[in-house]
Amino acid sequence: MTDLTPEQNGGVLKTIITEGSGECPMTGDTVSVHYVGTLLESGEKFDSSRDRDQKFEFKLGTSQVIKGWDLGVATMKRGEKCDLVCAADYAYGQSGSPPKIPGGATLKFEVELFDFFGEDVSEDKDQSILKRVHSKGEGWTTPNDGARMNIEIEGFTVPGNESFGTFNGELLHGEESANGFLPCIEKTLDDMKSGEKCEITVDAKHGFKEESSVFPKAPLNEKVKFVIDMKKFEKEKESWEMSSEEKIQQAELKRSSAKEYLEKGNYSMAIKFFDKVVKILEDEVKGPRALPEDDSSDSDDEDSKEEDGKAQEGADGDKVSNGGENKDSKTDKRVIDLMETSHLNLSLCYLKTKDFTKAMEHCDEVLGSPEVTEPRKEKALYRKGECFFSLHDYDQAKDQFGQVVVQFPKNTAAKKRIDECSKMAKEEKEKEKQRYQRMFKNFST
């Protein structure tokens, strides 16, 4: 017999009947077993999955079963059969489980392990991403977006278990996908604690579709495995923990990152970071605001060439006037600038990704600001017109572009769009007329 208790107090004794093979299950794995339970003293059987002809499944190491089982089954291999003798403290204690198990009883279980697999962490719960925990982490906190992580990630082929690369260093949580990691890695890191080590097995549908900058030797469109070691991390301050000045500094950093993603055409990451700017500062805009001194802070965005026929491409402006009578006034101006340019850029990103409803929502945020500068107002109006045009609502689009022309007569692109709206609306009416003519013709025959 082998004593499996950490204290070596004889509380759980194991005797192997039939050797198994391979590795042992890990904490959190779902295991499948048959068992026969008897009272050690009398040999009387009190339960048996074999009698029911139904294997018993449970999640290992999560207190779903008695302590003796969590300790004992963790040492077994596939195909192994063993006896586990569990003292009362590792079974049902001094209360027992009446009427079959008396208080203080020592129990004997014959257990056979058939299979085990990791926790299903896939969104569709189809076992396409399975997680297994090598070692639990410390505490209860997990990294938030922007957390600075010290981490090691190694990738392996499946089958074969051959390493195709290792990342070992610092990584900002929330930017994994943009830096060559699979989205499932970012999702796994969401729930990891400091000091935790785990592995995920990823089906081909979630695997690499193109060469990764981090794992250039990774197989494409194949099943892979990653061993992830979260050595430690430092959480980013939440907005409610920051002073006003810290919020502005963080928002400026987020907007800078967002602009880089926008310029690279990575709209999903740009949306993520511009949205962070808005969330960080949303409480700041509820107080008194100072009016911007002028509109010179507004540089041009990627759509500006279409909107005024002469501006350069790039993200919406971030230069801020630092004039004003006091510090609070200057701070308010920076907040307004950050919020307006972020909403404006979010409208651009959603327009590019064809989410026209959200694009218009962010245009309205800009247009609803009493301090909005003229160039930003022009862009928001024009961009909202583009949304209506893309949705084939040519009457609304024409009205929107008309507002641009009335307020900004030099906008030649809007004038051109008005003509296009009239043309498209006429074509739509003609098509509708032809459809009705065909319908009536079919009814008459």
Q: Can you give me a brief rundown of this structure?
A:
The protein has 445 residues and is α+β, with helices and mostly antiparallel strands.
The total of beta strands comes to: 13
How large a portion of the residues is in β-strands, by DSSP E? 15-25%
- What's the helix-strand series? EEEEHEHEEEEEEHEEHHHHHHHH
Q: How far apart, in Å, are the first and last alpha carbons? A: 91 Å
Question: How many individual helices?
Answer: 11
Q: Uncertain runs with pLDDT below 50, 5 residues or more?
A: 288-300, 302-313, 318-331
Q: Share of helix among residues?
A: 25-40%
Structure explained in plain terms:
The structure is a single chain. The chain has 445 residues and is α+β, with helices and mostly antiparallel strands. 36% of the residues lie in helices and 20% in strands. The strands form two sheets. Strands 1, 2, 3, 4, 5, 6 and 7 form a seven-stranded antiparallel β-sheet that branches. A six-stranded antiparallel β-sheet has the order 8-9-12-13-10-11, with helices on one face. A hairpin with an 8-residue loop joins strand 8 (119-120) and strand 9. Helix 4 (244-263) packs parallel to helix 7 (327-352).
Write the layout of secondary structure elements.
Blueprint: E1 2-3, E2 12-18, E3 30-39, E4 45-48, H1 49-52, E5 56-59, H2 67-73, E6 81-86, E7 107-117, E8 119-120, E9 129-135, E10 148-157, E11 163-172, H3 183-189, E12 197-202, E13 224-234, H4 244-263, H5 267-281, H6 304-308, H7 327-352, H8 356-367, H9 374-390, H10 394-407, H11 412-444
